């Protein structure tokens, strides 16, 4: 007698018709194998149902509870994200004017420094001789102005020659 | 096919859906059981079950009664489980592994009267094996297997819920059963 193959037994259990179905009814060996697998599956059903029942701790909800899902609710992440965005915005509002003020102050200070530098350069360029000759130049200027002439007070204008000679005699 | 998600003209829901409180009370445990056995994550199963009933409520005007209410609800649940698996494939399997039920937990509910400790150990081992094998089946095979052998739905109902032909359901069911049998073959 040829018994059912494992595939044929699986097909029988899955509910697929097979030509050898009559054999499965008559052969005790094949019948017991089919029954054994069906029994395992029945126990599986029982144990899964029992397990899922134990997992369901909630009371049986009603329609209102189901509809609560449709209402807009704050997600856990949304709340913190909102706070982060708000804090960022606040920081930007405070920081931007402060940054602009500091830029303006710095620009003003720089302009002053530039101005001082230009004045110093102008002063340097306006000198008629080297710094070492500055006292002499001052003396010459005083002579030109008629303030001092060889220890005597000069009343008239100074001749050009004295200026051309650099005031040195 | 059932008219879920189709743009059918709205009409008054059939009487079965008019009292939605009783629908929730009656079908919540069943949907939760299927979803939990599919994804094996209690919190996610609760959320998906709530989603399933919410979708049914919002689409109750489109239910025409071509199939049973149970089949219609299961179709929504199957789609949610599939979407959940797709969107969180990696997390899903990690979680499935982390929350895998050990054989002791799963077989706690087995009737043990008149069964020897040795026989009970074999049964526990078998339950553990079937549970693990179903976890490794393809998503479609697992759904069909659970609908057939846990939810007791017949092939036609499963075909309606899955949007497949009866022949296709039988093929998937055969493959799932054969895989399970290969795993438990030597456990007697």
Report on the architecture of this protein.
The complex is a heterodimer of chains A (169) and B (188). Chain A has 169 residues and is mainly alpha-helical. Among the domains of chain A are: 6-55, no CATH class; 91-129. Chain A has 7 helices and no strands. Chain A has helices at 6-14, 21-26, 28-55, 63-67, 76-126, 134-144, 160-164. In chain A, helix 1 (6-14) crosses helix 3. Chain A is rod-shaped and about 150 Å long. Mean pLDDT of chain A is 77; it is low at 158-169. By secondary structure, chain B is mainly alpha-helical. Chain B folds into 2 domains: 1-100, Rna Polymerase Sigma Factor, Chain: A (Orthogonal Bundle); 101-188, Winged helix-like DNA-binding domain superfamily/Winged helix DNA-binding domain (Arc Repressor Mutant, subunit A), CATH 1.10.10.10. Helix content of chain B is 70%, strand content 0%. Chain B has 10 helices and no strands. In chain B, helix 8 packs across helix 10. Chain B is globular. The chains are: A mainly alpha (169), B mainly alpha (188). Chain A binds chain B through residues 6-7, 9-11, 13-16, 36-37, 40-41, 43-56, 58, 60-63, 65-67, 69-70, and chain B through 20-21, 23-25, 28-29, 32-33, 36-37, 42, 45-46, 50-51, 53-54, 57-58, 101, 105-111, 123, 126-127, 130-131, 146, 148-150, 152, 155, 170, 173-174, 176-178, 180-182, 184-185, 188.
Features:
heterodimer, A: 169 residues, mainly alpha, 7 helices, 68% helix, disordered C terminus, B: 188 residues, Rna Polymerase Sigma Factor, Chain: A, Arc Repressor Mutant, subunit A, 2 domains, 10 helices, globular
């Amino acid at each position: 007698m040829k018994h059912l193959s494992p595939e044929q037994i699986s097909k029988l259990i899955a509910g697929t018709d097979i030509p050898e179905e009559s054999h499965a009814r008559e052969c005790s060996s094949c019948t017991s194998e089919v029954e054994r697998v069906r029994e395992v599956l029945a126990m599986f059903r029982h144990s899964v149902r029992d397990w899922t029942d134990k997992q369901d701790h909630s009371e049986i909800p009603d329609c209102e509870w189901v509809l609560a899902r449709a209402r807009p609710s704050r997600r856990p992440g949304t709340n913190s994200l909102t706070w982060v965005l708000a804090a960022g915005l606040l920081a930007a509002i405070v920081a931007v004017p402060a940054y602009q003020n500091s830029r303006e102050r710095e620009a003003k200070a720089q302009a002053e420094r530039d101005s001082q530098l230009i004045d110093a350069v102008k002063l340097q360029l306006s000198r008629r001789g080297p710094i070492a000759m500055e006292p002499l130049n001052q003396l010459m200027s005083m002579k030109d102005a008629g303030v001092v002439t060889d220890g005597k007070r000069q009343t008239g204008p100074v001749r050009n020659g004295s200026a051309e000679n650099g005031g040195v005699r | 096919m059932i008219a879920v998600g189709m743009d059918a003209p709205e009409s008054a829901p059939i009487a079965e859906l008019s009292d939605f409180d009783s629908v929730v009370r009656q079908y919540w445990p069943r949907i939760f059981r299927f979803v939990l056995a599919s994804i094996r994550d209690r919190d996610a199963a609760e959320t998906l079950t709530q989603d399933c009933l919410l979708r049914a409520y919002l689409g109750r005007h489109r239910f025409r009664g071509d199939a049973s209410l149970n089949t219609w609800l299961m179709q929504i649940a199957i789609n949610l489980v599939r979407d959940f698996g797709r969107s969180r494939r990696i997390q899903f399997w990690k979680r499935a592994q982390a929350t895998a039920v050990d054989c002791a937990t799963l077989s706690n509910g087995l009737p043990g009267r008149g069964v020897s400790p040795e026989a009970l150990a074999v049964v526990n081992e078998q339950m553990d094996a079937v549970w693990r094998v179903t976890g490794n089946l393809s998503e479609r095979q697992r759904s069909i297997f659970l609908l057939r052998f846990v939810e007791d739905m017949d092939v036609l109902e499963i075909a309606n819920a899955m949007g497949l032909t009866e022949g296709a359901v039988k093929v998937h069911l055969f493959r799932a059963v054969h895989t399970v049998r290969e795993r438990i073959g030597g456990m007697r």
